[in-house]
Amino acid sequence: MPKHEFSVDMTCEGCSNAVTRVLNKLGGVQFDIDLPNKKVCVDSKHSVDTLLETLGKTGKAVSYLGPK
């Protein structure tokens, strides 16, 4: 599966839990959250636009950093 890296403005465990919740709800993804560096790496066949929209549901600032 393609791997994508996103920057998500996470400041605490609650933020990373929100990311976990929305990605698990989307389904079909494997991901790693790097809270200190505010990055999320996602393995998924979903489009980048779908992943951006999903991560945006957390209410955090999200940007696409590129393929990993």
UniProtKB/TrEMBL annotation:
Residues 1-63 form the HMA domain. Homodimer. Interacts with ATP7B. Interacts with ATP7A. Interacts (via dimer form) with SLC31A1 (via C-terminal domain); this interaction improves ATOX1 stability and controls intracellular Cu(I) levels. PROSITE patterns: HMA_1, HMA_2. One of its GO terms (molecular function) is metal ion binding. The keyword Chaperone applies. Binds and deliver cytosolic copper to the copper ATPase proteins. May be important in cellular antioxidant defense. CDD domains: HMA (cd00371). This is Copper transport protein ATOX1. PANTHER family: COPPER TRANSPORT PROTEIN ATOX1. GO terms for biological process: copper ion transport. Keywords: Chaperone, Copper, Copper transport, Ion transport, Metal-binding, Transport. It comes from the Eukaryota. One of its GO terms (cellular component) is cytosol. The keyword Ion transport applies. Pfam families: HMA (PF00403). Transmembrane segments: none annotated. Belongs to the ATX1 family.
